[in-house]
Amino acid sequence: MNALNPNDIETITVLEDAAAASIYGARAANGVIMVTTKRGMRNTAPTITFEAKLGVNSRAIKEYSKVNAKEYLSYQWEAYKNLRGADWATNNLITQVVYNPVFVNGAQVAKPIGTDGKYVNGAIFAWDQDWFDALSQTPVRREYMLSLGGGSQNSRYYIALGYLRDEGLAVTSKFDRYSLRLSADSDINKWLSVGANIAGAMTSQNYPLSSGAAFSNVYNWTRLTAPIYPVYQYDNSGNLVKDEKGRPVYDMGYSLADHPSYPANTVNPYIPKDRPVAPGQNPVASTELNTIDYQRNSISPNMFVNLSFTDWLKFRVQGNLNYWSSIDDQIYSKEYGDAFGLGRIYKTRRQTIDYTINEVLEFNKTFGEVHNVKVLAGHENSYYQYKYLYGQKTTTFSDDLSEFATASVTADLTSYTSELAREGYFGRASYDYNNKYFVEASLRTDASSRFADGHRWGTFWSASAGWMLSAEPFMQDIEWLNLLKLRASYGSQGNDNLLSSGGGALYYASQGLFDLGYNYLGTPGILMYSNANEKLTWETNKTFNIGIDFALLKNRLSGSLQFYNRVTEDMLFALPLPNSTGIKPDSNGESTINSNAGAMVNRGVDIKLQSVLYKDDNWNVGLNATFGYLHNEITELPQEEIISGTKKWMVGRNAYEYWIRDWAGVDPANGDPLWWKEIKDAEGNVTGLETTNTYSQASLFYKGTALPKYEVSLMTPVEFYNFDFYTMWTGSFGHKVLDYAYATMMHMGERPGYIWHKDISQRWTPDNPNATVPAISATSSSANAGATTRFMYSGNNVRLRSVVLGYTLPKTWMDKIHVKKMRVYVQLDNILTIRASGLPDGLDTDTPLSGIQDVNSTPYKTITGGISITF
């Protein structure tokens, strides 16, 4: 989607009704989003529009508050004191953390904190590193668009060019996009029309690692590394160390004592031993020196031919092609970081070809002026191919050259091709009587290469009915009612999309596969990757909808109310197997087999409202709102329970319900962390609860769900004189989130050098026995384990997604400079987030369906100014 210029979009429509979506087959198994791009207007003179935007990005949720260097050393001293006593803590604090930023009268203090827990008199800090600031930039966003459109009586055309430079918050991160769209269609004669819509894009991206547990993940580093560890080296007098060219020398955490043979610019002679946190790493140095260049080129032609045999019988052939290729080159410096001493070159090449061809015959005729009949029949075939090539070489000649010829050792080389073919036949018939009574039915049969012979074809159908009550004679006297329609539908759809544990698509789901590359002493080795299941077949989604559409008060208020019940049967699911089967474990450590197993229901209510609150010659004030309620429930499983991560599936439970340990607070007597533990009798029946200070002995409970129960949106379009004003609010309610990032920063002090969140100030001490945070003690503990309700919070949130204020200059002014229209505006995206109280300051409650906030980037807040000129 990042290759699509949003300015090219005319409308976005979501098809929710079962009958409307079923005709689209397997691709619509999880709904249909129809994106209509802009086109020219017939009988319109050429129109040129230029638009320019300039903005700045920042975090929508502020970064977590962390302790400074002075606070960090104090807490670490306390953790050692609680474990081994004040004397040991005072004598060994600096020995354990290694770095010492504390000076008195220009000299380092070997024991900066006395046995009373206080700093020595006159102590100052030579450095206090804020790693988040060091790894952040002030990102600027620039975008320019130029379009030309128009048309004659028989044809129309549209051409659009776009350029975007969007910088990210992490240093060196940026995204460039060049886009082109060409659209044209023409009536050749009365019976033939043709058209094409071609989109192309070139993107280039530099993306420092911003997810995962690696220390090179800039967000992970900022939430792990204490501020006593600086970006650059400092000598024993507290002075910044510079090289012969006057540049500060990066501190990599390697000591000269431990690495006497390393180059001088990679070791620190002023520390006695290696840094306890990720020695050899410095993401500021490696981010600036490493090269990560991701380029993607794409082209998507969409062409059609329409044949009109008569006014009521037409034939259409349409072909869509999506082609993209990417170049991903990465150079990891041999001077610093992960590839120190060697240097590494990574090259990844990807290519995707995805095409779909439809042939549709449509009959559309009215009989007797009141009987409207539409029938269509069609055929569709699609093909998808993905090619992947990856290589890695080490021992490089230079950090500036990305070609494999500059490296001497081949470390990895692999490639593969994935293919998917589908074919379908479909038909739909609809009838309405005088636009008052409506019925419709559709039938579709699809085949997928994901399944074995004999199980590839699936047949699915739908039926719907509607009644325009407002067209009935007995409703005509109700002046305030403009439209009232009842509708209902039932339909089934097939789904062939089975995902791996890592989230990737499985294209050979029914086949037994082997994983290569497990070689030994030059002999090829293979491992069983998956068992064959030739009976694997389509997952079926059966949806029932019933709804009301209405318009009132001269269409000042309109909307819809809909209830839906969606049952998923024969779910495509990776069924757990014993690891003794020899099947390669997935990312969760489980051996599995692809199966049709289980059933699930999603039911809910959707409400949509559109209103005009006030309207006159100068004002037009509207208010639009949506509301959604969703209930999820597992109705069938192949076994009693299935546990995966923080979730446990059981019949009758929500599929996104947490299964975790329940926090019981802090023991006021000694500051121990406590969890709830079930008390069981001899027969295994639960008779009560007790607390335990041992994490592994705590019981697991169902505690909330990661799936929001309620979602709302509110839009306020306002036009007054030449001004336009628009806001969009969204909200999610009824779910819980787990904050693993915050949990990491609330450790017990057992790992010297790891930063604390400022909330550690609420820890237990003898003077604060009723604390909500356990006592800190430099011993191994699971007190900060993320998978407990201690770090579970309400996910309720309201976000101001967009605010736009624009002004269209008066037409009399524009006529003088021969401009049709000029509009200037300010746009604010994600400008405000309202969360529940008591949450960690850096937690973004708008998490994925896992419900887990980890060490990753969060949404951006963007403030943009723009101008649009039409000639």
Give a written overview of the molecule:
With 871 residues, this protein is mainly beta. It is built from eight helices and 41 strands. The protein has a 22-stranded antiparallel barrel. Strands 5-4-6 form a three-stranded antiparallel sheet, with no helix packed on it. Strands 30-31-32 form a three-stranded antiparallel sheet, with no helix packed on it. Helix 2 (69-84) packs across helix 3 (86-97). The longest helix has 16 residues, at 69-84. It is globular. It starts with 8 loop residues before the first strand and ends with a strand. The mean pLDDT is 91.
Short account of what is shown:
The chain is mainly β and 871 residues long. It has eight helices and 41 strands.
Summary keywords:
41 strands, mainly beta, three-stranded antiparallel β-sheet, 871 residues, 8 helices, 50% strand, globular
